[in-house]
Specification:
Shape: elongated
Number of strands: 14
Strand content: 35-45%
Largest sheet: 6 strands, antiparallel
Number of helices: 3
């Protein structure tokens, strides 16, 4: 699951995704537990997954399910591993099982439209922090990693930053004082 997408086919409990250089099988895993008084957060689920000894690159998106747990996508070869090794999230005992892709519950993201005037297209992050994020490979524009901090963003670009979120540029224009009047949608 390298993040570049492909075409997907449902084959009896496993999603087979064709990526340029071959096929990757993906399973949908459901983690159920009683999180009624303190719902699990993304870092809780991810931490529990990584504690089982799996590298992050083998696990895809994690969809939180409120007080019942979460669902996530993973490399199909690891599904049985998670069913046996993933037994606890924080102090909550959990039940883990494979579910069909049709049972995947993906909620619509909350979208906030923001209009602001910026000195540069850094979205309220310091130059040095943004440069470090870009050089660290944590910033993607239109699903592709960015290697230069000086990339020009345009209307319609989708910007994703690990740990910070995702936004889409709605419009960009220059003001009289050579600043950027930007309208963007922030997905939370």
């Amino acid at each position: 699951m390298n993040g570049y997408g492909g075409t997907g086919v449902w084959e009896g409990g496993v999603v087979v995704v064709s990526i340029r250089d071959g096929r990757v099988e993906i399973s949908t895993i459901e983690v159920k537990g009683n999180f009624m008084f303190y719902p699990a957060k993304h870092p809780d689920i991810l931490g529990a997954i990584l504690v089982t000894g799996v590298v992050r690159g083998k696990v895809g998106d994690i969809m939180l399910q409120g007080e019942t747990g979460a669902q996530f996508l993973c490399d199909a070869t690891l599904a049985e591993h998670f069913e046996t090794c993933l037994t606890q999230v924080r102090s909550v005992t959990v039940k883990v099982e494979r579910v069909p892709l049709s049972a995947l519950k993906v909620s619509e993201p909350k979208v906030v439209e923001v209009s602001s005037v910026e000195a540069s297209m850094r979205f309220k992050i310091s130059r040095s922090k943004m440069s470090d994020l870009v050089k660290g490979g944590d910033v993607r524009v239109n699903w592709r990693s960015v290697s230069k901090p000086s990339i020009e963003l345009q209307q319609g670009d989708l910007v994703s930053c690990s740990g910070k979120g995702r936004l889409q540029i709605v419009s960009v224009s220059k003001t009289k004082k050579d600043r950027y009047a930007v309208t963007y949608k922030r997905f939370t």
